[in-house]
UniProtKB/TrEMBL annotation, chains A, B:
<dbReference type="GO" id="GO:0004329">
    <property type="term" value="F:formate-tetrahydrofolate ligase activity"/>
</dbReference>
<dbReference type="Pfam" id="PF01268">
    <property type="entry name" value="FTHFS"/>
</dbReference>
<comment type="similarity">
    <text>Belongs to the formate--tetrahydrofolate ligase family.</text>
</comment>
<protein>
    <recommendedName>
        <fullName>Formate--tetrahydrofolate ligase</fullName>
        <ecNumber>6.3.4.3</ecNumber>
    </recommendedName>
</protein>
<keyword id="KW-0554">One-carbon metabolism</keyword>
<dbReference type="InterPro" id="IPR020628">
    <property type="entry name" value="Formate_THF_ligase_CS"/>
</dbReference>
<keyword id="KW-0436">Ligase</keyword>
<keyword id="KW-0547">Nucleotide-binding</keyword>
<dbReference type="InterPro" id="IPR000559">
    <property type="entry name" value="Formate_THF_ligase"/>
</dbReference>
<comment type="pathway">
    <text>One-carbon metabolism; tetrahydrofolate interconversion.</text>
</comment>
<feature type="binding site">
    <location>
        <begin position="65"/>
        <end position="72"/>
    </location>
    <ligand>
        <name>ATP</name>
    </ligand>
</feature>
<keyword id="KW-0067">ATP-binding</keyword>
Length: 556, 556
């Protein structure tokens, strides 16, 4: 079979205005970016208000392993399949970060015959959204140091500034820097650093804002640091919120592209899945729901992290009611979760599959616990044996859910029609009774404990010294109703990335908490979290370039 | 009269495909960005090769003063006027830098009824070109520190790395920084800094490259630093040139917008006018010349800096043959050049005008010296008196050139028709015999001296210790044929910004020289040059925002 890139290049893309027309949008309601990308205008978005909403399908997965699960591929394939069986379906996924493409080879949006195009542009500047986030973030940074330079009227404690700078680049040398050197004209010396753009609170805000007014309000609430007497100072105190909103005005408009089968896809926003919530924007999901029968979306990492945040943060804030959860697994990944080494994945190992199903079963239970009907999508690989697949089917049947083999990678939407039929049956069967894991009113520490014990199945969470007091201070300041965003390894239910399967009774150490008032959540950090990656010894950048036709090579 | 912003908002813009059609471009040959901006595709550019070229008109000015001259306004008004008198004319100007808009209020592209639209977008992200430059520049920076981190096989002397980072923001705290703090995992500690994006050599390269292959070759030649034994290390040595080219692929395509009178304008690239050459891209000018009878373009600052670099750097490299130089002056600016204080500009002062004409006369002589026919455009202000205008006319007549009053600010193209007629008469009269100031073969120091004595009328140039030896080293390394780019104050022929009029016999101290092999010039720095601005006490960002219609306010 051809590579993802070859398939993507062979795609017969329709003009983006034709894709927009399928959503009921006129050429005046979109802002084209070239011939195969467009933004849906703010005016068009406003015109959608009050329309009935379609059904929301969440695609999530077992804990990731090096074997790969194919969550995005399944999201795209399911979207195409729903269209094939007569539903107007739109896919909603995140945008890719520019920087990491120059380290490892870039990620396609999907794979095989289930992809979103144009692939190269989506991995480079796309429509400039991430550059706008970078600019808005760094404008605030510049205004902080400028405020101090001109007399520091707000009384910022320069040791207690928490707002850093960002760059969409893997650049480890910027993690920890000293700025303001060179004398009086350059300001005050300060130790600070850069994160990668997707880790910016501005990115999380862009993805959680419902309109421009909400965007500005959230930006204004960003806490950038503290005064000597520990009073928080906000972006609004610095009068930065208006200009940041102006910089993000266009970026807040969702991006429309298409699948290989010419179905609409909204690709918008890309917050980190660890220190942020890891889903595409609320504004894109809302728009898609008002223009489609079905919206298929995905959440970052495995269901313990991604689905939990999607449900407890994004759906809570946006008032979304998902109808079905699709839990993606592969025989190979199940075997790895069952302790099989990567080198041995080629051989049939039914016992390994059965052991790995413990991980799957835990996610099924958790998703059912949110009141969602569940279907397991077995993303088919050619090496899967009938006995292995049967072991999975039997396991799922015991848990009251169906496991359906999907062959969208090789066959496109046609390969996922059976999955689509089951999704429709569950969605239209009225079985969904979605509720969040915890109420807004629950105290912050109890929210953390609830996630750790109910989702991760830890015996308890353990707070670093002073941490619970910190949470109480925030509760006293009126932030107690915020949801919690846990940052921990995606490879395990525990905080030990090597502990696959379905561990229980472990302890979750919470090392640090951060208050993201603008995004509207409290981050609880459990383990090492890298917010500025580095480049490898032989970065992909060394082999990226243009061929004689001006096409980009080496990116994939 | 309405403000520039009000006039711009009232503009009846044509769909950008209609503007493209006027240039003979089909909808498939442009890449739209929204409905009023587009890029001209690489394929369309390739198709223009071999077509006959129109006539090139340079708009330049006397030395700038706080009174304002209106060079861009005249460029736009002249373009509109040429179209009115039956010539197919295209305007070519630079893009605006994002960062400075958050300090002082942003600059319109033109003014009054001679503007290019859309104004807000052109002052914000526009089509993302500057973000692409920022990314390409910083990718190289990251690859340098990454190369050192992984063992420094090229033997870079970390004290001799000259390549910094860039950000399109006014952020003085980044001028001088230490990176790589925080221990082994973050690399080696180094002192470095950030410049504003327009000061990047990558920006100069984007504007001087003739196609993608030339772009990559120039990027590869960038010298990023030296080994311990002083051998230069290039971007190509780091294998960064291909990925940088991929990042700049779209940015190299010129941006098409329109004037208020719906005439085509290419707005592309924006290198600094001091440490770089300060003109729009060669690729835009070349494309415009192949699609128009006339191309009206401008160069940064006054004619001593801007026109000299346009002619000796851009025209030399691109093989361009300008037909006419339009020298813009205002009565008010002439008076300031004649020593009149800003507060006294409202009163008639014929003697002041006559004194200021010395500055004008010097520029006329210089331009004639390049073999260009010259016309003086008097950009009309309502307070100008007939006696003052007559003094200017008489002065110009003595120097053998016409001074023509142009009222495009108030009247649009109709107000500049007489100027357009004179431009056509000069251009089609065959009087141009353009030649550069110095040949490629002249030694570098002699090139600097030639500019200082012949253009600035200094008695001589004075080299800082070791500087001439440095130039000789570069000549020995094969860089002796490069042109020279002087960085000095734009306010005077001398290096003293307060010395208006037409000083002569002064000494030009050359403090530093820099080798920009990628851009293809040697920079000679004469005076303080700021490559990263700061924000003022009350930055414009504090009042920028959106109104209830989502329109940007406070930017102008």
């Amino acid at each position: 079979m051809d590579t993802d890139l070859q398939i993507a290049r062979q795609a017969r893309k329709l003009p983006i205005a034709d894709i927009a027309a399928r959503l009921g949008l006129t050429p005046a309601e979109i802002l084209p970016y070239g011939h195969d990308k467009a933004k849906i205008s703010h005016a068009a978005l406003a015109g959608l208000q009050g329309r009935p909403m379609g059904r929301l399908v969440l695609v999530t997965a077992i804990n990731p392993t090096p074997a790969g699960e194919g969550k995005t591929t399944t999201t795209v394939g399911l979207g195409d399949a729903l269209n094939r069986i007569g539903k107007r379906a739109t896919v909603c996924i995140r945008e890719a970060s520019l920087g990491p493409n120059f380290g490892m080879k870039g990620g396609a949006a999907g794979g095989g015959r289930a992809q979103i195009v144009p692939m190269e542009e989506m991995n480079l500047h796309f429509t400039g959204d991430f550059h706008a986030v970078t600019s808005a973030h760094n404008l605030l940074s510049a205004m902080i140091d400028n405020h101090i330079y001109w007399g520091n009227a707000l009384g910022l404690d320069t040791r207690r500034i928490t707002w850093r700078r960002v760059m969409d680049m893997n650049d480890r040398a910027l993690r920890d820097v000293v700025t303001g050197l060179g004398g009086v004209a350059n300001g005050h010396v300060r130790q600070t650093g850069f994160d990668i753009t997707v880790a910016s609170e501005v990115m999380a805000i862009l993805c959680l804002a419902t309109d421009l007014a909400d965007l500005q309000a959230r930006l204004g609430r960003i806490v950038i640091g503290y005064t000597a007497d520990r009073r928080p100072v906000t972006a609004r105190d610095l009068r930065a919120d208006g200009a940041m909103t102006a910089l993000l005005r266009d970026a807040l408009q969702p991006n429309l592209v298409q699948t290989l089968e010419n179905n609409p896809a909204l690709v918008h926003g890309g917050p980190f899945g660890n220190i942020a919530h890891g889903c595409n924007s609320i504004i894109a999901t809302n728009a898609a729901l008002r223009m489609s029968d079905y919206v298929v979306t995905e959440a970052g990492f495995g269901a313990d992290l991604g689905a939990e945040k999607f449900l407890d943060i994004k759906c809570r804030m946006a008032g979304l009611q998902p109808s079905v959860a699709v839990l993606v697994a592969t025989i190979r990944a199940l075997k790895m979760n069952g302790g099989v080494a990567k080198a041995d994945l080629g051989a049939e190992d039914v016992a390994g599959v059965r052991r790995g199903c413990a991980n799957l079963g835990r996610h099924i239970e958790n998703l059912l616990g949110f009141g969602l009907p569940v279907v397991v999508a077995l993303n088919h690989f050619s090496g899967d044996t009938e006995a292995e697949v049967e072991a999975l089917r039997a396991y799922c049947a015991e848990h009251g859910v169906k496991a359906i083999t999907a062959r969208h990678w090789a066959e496109g939407g046609a390969g996922a029609e059976e999955l689509a039929q089951e999704v429709v049956a569950l969605a239209e069967g009225g079985g969904a009774d979605f509720h969040t894991l915890y109420p807004d009113s629950m105290p912050l520490w109890q929210k953390i404990e609830t996630i750790c014990t109910r989702i991760y199945r830890a015996s308890h969470a353990e707070a670093a010294p002073g941490l619970r007091q910190q949470l109480e201070t925030w509760e006293a300041a009126g932030h107690g109703r915020l949801p919690v965003c846990i940052a921990k390894t995606q490879y395990s239910f525990s905080t030990d990335p090597t502990l696959r399967g379905a561990p229980e009774g472990h302890i979750v150490p919470v090392r640090e908490v951060r208050l993201n008032v603008g995004a509207g959540f409290v981050v609880a950090i459990c383990g090492e979290i890298m917010t500025m990656p580095g480049l490898p010894r032989n970065p992909a950048a060394e082999t990226i370039g243009l061929d004689e036709d001006g096409q980009i090579v080496g990116l994939f």
